[in-house]
Amino acid sequence: MAQRSSFVVVANRLPVDEVTTPDGDKQWRPSPGGLVTALHPVLTEHHGTWIGWAGGTGDAPEPFDLEGIHIHPVPLSGEELERYYEGQSNATIWPLYHDAVETPAYKRRWRETYRVVNHRFAQAAAQVADEGATVWVQDYQLQLVPSMLREMRPDLRIGFFLHIPFPPIELFMQMPFRAEILRGLLGADLVGFQQKLAAQNFVRLARHLLGLRYEGQSIQVDGRKVKAGAFPISIDTREMERLAADPSVQARAKQIRAELGDPKTVILGVDRLDYTKGIELRLKAFRELLADGKLNVGDAVMIQVATPSRERVEHYQTLRVKVEREVGRINGEFGKVGTPAVHYLHQSVDKQELAAMYAAADVMMVTPLRDGMNLVAKEYIACRGDSGGALVLSEFAGAATELRQSFLCNPHDPDGVKDALLRAINAEPAELKRRMRVMQRHLRTHDVSRWAKTFLDELGVGETSDDSEG
Ligand code: ADP
Ligand code: F6P
After folding, report:
1. Which residues, by range, are in coiled-coil regions (predicted)?
2. Is pTM, for the whole model, over 0.90?
3. Is the beta carbon of 370 within 6 A of some atom in ligand 2?
């Protein structure tokens, strides 16, 4: 019998992926993305069960315990991976919810598989949740789970949090099974978003599409109240500060700068290789500043770390070609032997190395065309200590609502991006430190633990620490 929990998180991904090494051995490695970064410390604090996919296909690994979290893997077949994950989640919903910056594709068979897989996740939650337990469903891959689960287990308290933007009504209306998605979400007691505007879009959509009445942020559904609200997600700020202050990380930061030839300005980008992140436009801004003679190779160097992501989805393949072509062009035109202008890493790096890169970078460029939050921006700030540094941040990242002392820019305006980058590079150290301190203070109080607490309090859950039974 499955181990039962009073606190259950349901997310597409587990915090670890099972990977097969070249020798055929199975290994677990941290999985990518902001959702895992945010939820891992929450689950470590509250214990409970994490239901999710282990990253491979075929039979799911057996449930196991990891750092106080009970891990309950859900299987996906190869066809489900293609239709539910790559198709409906990442070629339909992901682009649609990100302002359709790439054209969403709509396919009936993807929708059907999305339903089947959502049902499987709901069943897994119904199986492991204790009587009256709290189940917190995460993100756009699982929008049907709240209503499916409510039908199976009306005794549960169900929360849902969307990590990515929620689109305006006119965009949402493109989706062929829009009413089903909306009803799916309305199965929750509380639906959380990154931004106030997203919560307002949702409430208005419920009236527009289903004729439901609402008062404030509360929607009336079948005699129940469903609340919507904004809960901006964050990072484990203290942990990130501690990591960056570690002498070995500081030493590595110095070494990185030395390996780069001790330039005046190190510019850094860190993202999943995703077309919403604006990687190309930031490379182009850098190239144009080199071409204009406003920056010189040797004085300024750029590092772009891009984690491989969703590599079988067409838009991602096209993006990779474009980014790599742009990196090649910049280095071809402006690099010197032994001194490239851009250092490009298409790989994931471990936490210590990432913290060292943040600590080494004078300017961090976070330039998404649209982003629910962007935790990279927050991580950079937490890693700066009192050494200043500048964040160039897109107005279209959720983080821009909070990080007002960054150098804000409109990523659709190339001159605006160049201008923000130059202002960041040329700002006085005292001004940079002042800006950084304000943002650091904000992040110390608005950390991931506060995010989780605020959401769970609003959901009406008191103490969530789990005392699971076998
Ligand atoms: P998203 O959830 O869309 O991927 P976020 O910026 O919110 O974007 O979160 C990304 C998370 O993944 C951050 O915690 C960041 O540290 C991590 N990350 C991004 N790129 C890399 C990389 N190349 N190597 C290791 N971690 C990365
Ligand atoms: O936060 C957005 C998000 O899509 C998460 O849901 C997801 O886990 C992460 O980014 C990484 O994406 P993926 O799981 O598709 O690799």
Report:
1. none
2. yes
3. no
